[in-house]
Model the fold of this input.
Amino acid sequence: MTGPPSTTAIPTGWRARVDPRPALLRVRDSGIAIVQIVVAATASYAFAHYVLGHPAPLLAATVTVASLGLVRDARPRRVLETVLGMLLGILVAELLLLVTGTGWWQLGLTLGLTLVVARLLSPQASFAIAAAIQSLIVMVIPAIAPFTRLVDGMIGGVAALLVTALIPRNPLRAALRDGRAVFAAMDSASAALVQALRRGDRMRAERGLEKARALQPLLDDWRSSLESGRAIARISPFLRRQRFDLERQERVRESVDLATRNLRVVARRVVYLCDDGVGRPVSAEVLAETMRGAGFVSDALDDISLEPPARAALAAVASRLDPAALLPGASLGDQNLIAAIRPLVVDLLTATGMTSAEARAAVPRI
Done:
């Protein structure tokens, strides 16, 4: 006789599938964007309907939703470009309606002409698609008078730009999240390289190299967040206090971008050295100390008071980076690895606020 089935032995995979946290995080991160869309769409619709008397100002709402969106890049310029693309589609459709009327072939002609004109005016594919969608709406849904939908679209575009400035998304939080993701990935890549050096493990070294090569998309996300945040902060009166932090993060990002390139150089040298299966504890410790310093730089992203400790930690590593003194009698390949770590440390030092000249002076001359 068997007892009742256990209610506790839930497979790990099943728990992962029903974990609500990612969904809740998505909602939290999109909170301000949702508020922007709701406010702009409602306000533009209400203005066109109740103030201008348009019976069904659909485009006033759709233009705001499509131009704001939930994307990472919420720069006013991107919003404006999307608005202009949609207005172009509305204008082309309105003009052809006056000349050709409605019908299936008129719809095809309008769509084709809109896409051609949009591609001529902008290299962005999204610009042409936005224009085409709005032209289709104009051709399919009748209006009480010519060009009323163009007015609705303009109202929606103005509303979208206004909420971008007056209900801004929090650019600093998004940039901090993306910056920390870069540092976490750097730490993961370097941890594999350190273990490879300690054990003489080529497979682990290759894994570290793969992780180092995968850093670029994360850096691109960070750059996009910062570009968007800085653009919004320039027009929003509510984000002026964040301008300094965003500019400081951009300076850190530029240095870290160079550091990741040098980390890939280090990783390739580690792969080459680990071919012989010999452990290299000194080189492993130097790289580990370097990346501990990078961790301090990550901690300083949202707290400028932590930059001096990060600088001091990295300067202490830099002062030891004389390959001949650190590894006397070692092979040229081993000394070249230490030489490859030098520019990595220099880039991380500039991320702490040092000038390039000061950072280069921190490492011994060789």
Notes: Residues 31-166 form one domain. Residues 1-16 have pLDDT under 50 and may be disordered. The chain has two domains: 31-166, 171-361. DSSP finds 17 helices and no strands in the chain.
